[in-house]
Amino acid sequence: MSEVLRLQHASVQFGSHQALREVSLSIHAGERVALVGANGCGKSTLLRVAHGLLPLSQGQVTRASAVRQAMVFQRPHMLRTTALRGVALGIWLQGVPWRAALDQAMHAIAHVGLQDLAHRSARHLSGGQQQRLALARAWALQPQCLMLDEPTSSLDPHAKREVERLLHEWVQTTDLTLLFSSHNLGQVKRLATRVIYLEAGRVLADLPVADFFGQPLAHSHPEAHLFLKGELV
Hints:
Blueprint: E1 3-14, E2 17-28, E3 32-36, H1 43-51, E4 58-63, E5 69-72, H2 83-92, H3 98-111, H4 127-140, E6 145-149, H5 157-173, E7 177-181, H6 185-191, E8 194-199, E9 202-208, H7 209-214, H8 222-229
Parallel strand pairs: 3-7, 3-8, 5-6, 6-7
Antiparallel strand pairs: 1-2, 1-4, 8-9
Helix pairs in contact: 2-3, 2-4, 3-4, 4-5
């Protein structure tokens, strides 16, 4: 599999706080990688570095130049316009004529089941609808690598299932590379092929999903073992 992303000794410093510490890892095409760990462990920082939203304090990040990326946030920003125009704007900024961008946007919105709300203000949609709209906005750009920061943590159970269903359908029907953070370990089991456990900005475990959840970790990865037992939150 071709390499999509590589971090080498990546560190990020915010004043006196070190958010990432000497992180080295590679993500390959088609992988579905979950970032797990307690609050403040560095998951969001790592995602923002990977997507190019944060500079490194030291180290190096390398992205495959031909790979299109998109990112969906826990609470996506909604523009002061309709759902349809908000999705079309991202397509138009890629150089697509406006009318064609509107057509593509409607197709993307229909894909997430929001076609009846296309002309409603995006800011007046429910939290679950906004998250689905954010997925449509990303899907419309046809990314090969999708990054998500806690994509369902603020949603009710029904909305969580809908978002997860869309993600599962997406990865099953394309060769999409997925890099996401989540506190929902059931979701990690269902969506991921690989799990990276972070603590205090360091990668302390990087394992196939079956090994992370199915193998004894007390001796090989004691911090991840405590996390899974619920002793680290």
